[in-house]
Amino acid sequence: MAKATAKKKHRRRTRRTQAQRADRHELYQKSVQSPEVEIEFFSERFRELRGREPLTLREDFSGTAYLCTEWCKSHPERRATGVDLCADTLQWGREHNVEPAGPEVARRIELINEDVLTVRTRKHDIVCAMNFSYCLFETRERMRAYFKNVRRGLKRDGLFFLDLLGGTATYDVCEEEREIEDEDFTYIWEQASFNPIDHHMQCYIHFAFPDGSRLDRAFEYAWRLWTIPEIRELLQEAGFSRVRIYWEEFEEDEDDPDSDYLVGTGIYHEVEEVEQQESWLCYFVAEP
């Protein structure tokens, strides 16, 4: 008895590190997603090309349904459908995004735990697949099949939005760190491997904290680095009548006028020809 008491007295409580206390989904939303930017881009392009306000959105690979929630919060008549294979991530989204938005918003959001290759939904004004999520389809057959299923889920005057990364730096192994403004952590993007034969990439997201702790491989991705012509051709093969490319406008860094690097403005223009860059991000807008 005395032995057990002594052991209990000398037991010290250890404080959990910031990494141990962190929620990876919350970190991802704060460091990767910008739903307000995407909603503005979707809405402006839709009004410009279709002459009306888009009201229904289907987000494929929706994860935590952050974009779906913000879409419905942006307009009282908007509805959203989120489709994802991971039931646990959808449930996290329900508890942390959808339900906290309130019943009036939550009732306009439907989350579906199914495969985007086979899911059947009502027809939407917009279908989107953001953050290069669709690149997990590494063959032309599977990618074409996905695009065909998207087309079935669009209204006759609907639009399909995709983003894609590229540039000379994407063909190499590298690691990029970015301190998240107003947050107490650092986002780390690692391109761990790239195979030039089949363009297969292995990538990871890590998070580092001021106390020295890290959340390594919080997210991992095995996908193909597709090119713009390949995606455009596959969309056309899937039946889309027109595929537009929107490219970000760059300008000199006002904070560092002597720098050779340009910075993105967040403004996108439809283009047919651009100069190669070390790193770029573009949007596809496909019309059925």
How would you describe the overall organization of this protein?
- The chain is of the alpha/beta class and 288 residues long.
- The protein folds into 2 domains: 20-167 and 226-265 and 283-287, 3-Layer(aba) Sandwich (Rossmann fold); 169-222, no CATH class.
- It contains 9 helices and 12 strands.
- The chain has an 8-stranded mixed sheet. Strands 6-7-8-9 form a 4-stranded antiparallel sheet.
- The longest helix is centred in the N-terminal third of the chain and has 16 residues, at 35-50.
- It is globular, with a radius of gyration of 22 Å.
- The termini are far apart.
- 28% of the residues are buried.
How would you describe this structure in keywords?
alpha/beta; Rossmann fold; 8-stranded mixed beta sheet; 4-stranded antiparallel beta sheet; 9 helices; 29% helix
